[in-house]
Each structure stands twice: as structure tokens, then as C-alpha cells.
Write a structure and sequence with these properties.
alpha/beta; Rossmann fold
């Protein structure tokens, strides 16, 4: 069910165990060859493809394109909310639906920079309602909902999601090839393992002057379709699990 197409009376008639899906992404630079709306375009496409599997069982909000992208601000065209502001925005969105009685909230994310503040927002919501035992509060990034695609997609070379990389470039090549600029000429920028297992704070120029990380030259529309299929299946499976949750147990 699309929230944007319902009246408030129709929303009020919904079972409060109906999962509420809040998609969040970004508007930020994606290297020399990709559009700034990449993350939002990809998440929207994945949700659209997955939607038939849960369209009668979940309430889907319009996508929030404003993300936390401060690590990309050296590149014009990036639009970013301050981290604390973004946390409070997401916290408020979730809280709106809790105040209306909904108990199963899923924030579905399409941008890596939203991961840390998104988890923080959901942590803070849980503390606000710590006396409640009937809430299910989830933050999920779509590419983490499946086993690594490299084992199931032919010729895929990257082991993990990068930025304007083989994976993202392939998906945009499938969806909107007219928006991809000479990706075959873009040099590889390896992920690297800087100081792992410690986590290093970084901004994009620390890692890439062009603004990408990964292997965009290896991208293809065929790989992109396979990735979109796989990620859409992962999203659909998650929402079905949320729908089946018994309302009490830790397991889902």
C-alpha cells in the first residue's frame, strides 16, 4: 500500500501490526560517470520491483532523498543534512507512526553514509519507548540483505558495495544507460583495508579524487539486472519476515 495514495481514514483503518516501510537514500556525487541521484534511483527501483510481494501487507512511504552525505561535500552537487539533524529527522518520522499506534517500523536504506546515523536514530527511538515490548524497529541497507552477489552473478568482480562502482554502475546501466558517462575509461580505485579492524573516519578525497571507489569499468547492464533482481528479492523477503513476526519473540 502506498501511503501517498491513501486518505487518512484509510490509514486509520489499517491493522497496527501492518509493517511501515520508510525508504531513505541520498543526493550526492557519484564520480565522473554517474548521476548525483544514483542512490535514490536505485533504492526506488529495488522497492518498486519488490513491492508486488508485499503491496497488500505493508504501508510504504515515499522515498526521503535527503541523506547524510557530508563525506562527499568536497564535490559540487552533493546535498547533505547535518548528521544530528538527519538523525532527528529519521527519529521523528518513526515516532510519527508509533504515535499513531503502528508497531512494526522498517527503515530501508540505500546509501552507505546513512548507516551509522540511521542505526543511532533507531537506537534512540528504542530508548524513548523502552517500556514497550511490542515494537519492532529495524534499520536495513538493501545490499546487506543478501549473501554476497559475487557467488551468484557471473563475472562480477567486486566482493562488496563500493561507490559509483561495478555494482552501482551496472544497475544504472540497466535502468538508465543514458545517464552513465564513459565508465569503461574510469580507473579502478580499490576498497583497501586501512587500519582494519579499526574503523577509520574518512572523507571521499582521502580515498578517491575522482569520487568513486571500486571497478566501474567492469560494469554491464546484464550484471545490473541480476543485481537488481537479487536485491529486490532480499527486500521482499525481509518485509515478509516482518509481517510474520509473532509480536513478541527476539527471533524473526
Amino acid at each position: 500500500m502506498l501511503l501517498s495514495e491513501l486518505t487518512w481514514q484509510a490509514v486509520d483503518q489499517l491493522d497496527r501490526d501492518t509493517p511501515v516501510i520508510i525508504p531513505v537514500a541520498a543526493l550526492e556525487q557519484h564520480g565522473l560517470h554517474m548521476p548525483v541521484f544514483t542512490d535514490s534511483m536505485l533504492l526506488d527501483a529495488i522497492i518498486s520491483q519488490a513491492h508486488p510481494s508485499f503491496k497488500d501487507d505493508a504501508l510504504l512511504l515515499p522515498l526521503t532523498w535527503l541523506g547524510n552525505s557530508h563525506h562527499h561535500l568536497d564535490f559540487p552537487g552533493t546535498v547533505s543534512a547535518e548528521p544530528r539533524l538527519w538523525i532527528d529527522m529519521l527519529l521523528g518520522l518513526v515516532d510519527n507512526f508509533i504515535s499513531h499506534g503502528f508497531r512494526r517500523l522498517v527503515v530501508l536504506n540505500g546509501h552507505g553514509g546513512n548507516d551509522v546515523p540511521g542505526r543511532q536514530a533507531m537506537f534512540e527511538v528504542r530508548q524513548r519507548y523502552r517500556e514497550r515490548q511490542d515494537l519492532l524497529l529495524l534499520f536495513a541497507t538493501y545490499w546487506n540483505l543478501v549473501e554476497t552477489p559475487r557467488g551468484s552473478i557471473a563475472d562480477l568482480e567486486q566482493h562488496e558495495m563500493g561507490h559509483a562502482c561495478e555494482w552501482e554502475t551496472s544497475m544504472i546501466l540497466h535502468l538508465r544507460p543514458d545517464l552513465v558517462k564513459q565508465h569503461k575509461d574510469v580507473d579502478a580505485v580499490p576498497q583497501g583495508d586501512s587500519f582494519q579492524p579499526a574503523q577509520r573516519a574518512w572523507i571521499m578525497p582521502d580515498r578517491s579524487q575522482a569520487g568513486h571507489i571500486g571497478l566501474p569499468a567492469k560494469a554491464s547492464a546484464q550484471k545490473g539486472k541480476a543485481l537488481l533482481d537479487l536485491f529486490s528479492e532480499g527486500v521482499g523477503t525481509l518485509i515478509q519476515r516482518v509481517t510474520r513476526w509473532d509480536g513478541q519473540s527476539w527471533e524473526g
